[in-house]
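Q: How would the structure tokens look for this protein?
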Amino acid sequence: MSFVVFSLLGLIQCRQAEQPVKQYPGWKLVWHDEFDRDGHLNEDWWMYENGFVRNKELQWYQPENAFCEDGLLVIEARKERKTNTAYDEHSENWRFNRPFAEYTSSCVKTRMKKEFLYGRFEIRAKIPTRSGAWPAIWTLGADLEWPSCGEIDLMEYYRIGGVPHILAGGKTGAGIRNGGPAKLLMIIFYRKILSGEKSFMSGGWTGMRRLFGFTWTMNC
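A: Here is the predicted structure in token form.
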């Protein structure tokens, strides 16, 4: 299982290095990244996605939009035109038949660099909450193609009918994805962010870093 962190049309800031790494009785810390060096991510641990990747999204993924600064991992979405280097005007594939992208962002993941089976997984992050934002943190199985590899979502934020929601859950499936339809079983839990003092709009989440995580053992 490897981690994926990405931001769609927003900005996500991950854990601040000033805070001590939390230890839990009965658990052994095996890996952590405090992003405590300015500039590029540690590429011994992280890799980047490039180009148009998934869900017919508008943004072009590129390494330049993810960087470490003041003990934070910053992932920025920018309104800027990017030439599609794989453009083919005759293609029916959405990844190739768009000559330009009007937005850029970044998606970083630990695939083939840091992979885990069981444990407690945590990330502290501040997420964008404006309309159009879709920040997400999730894990994928290391061996198979999606959805057969399975997926565990630590956090996804988006709006349903204009109402902010935080989603967490899991997905698994079987079948052939590229050569035909794949069966997909989805187990999803989401929480509506209610209006009022603690809502996204009144500042209960905006500007704050929250701890997202899950625990995976042999029994669950």
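The chain is about 0% helix and 40% strand.

Residues 194-198 have pLDDT under 50 and may be disordered.

Upvote if useful.
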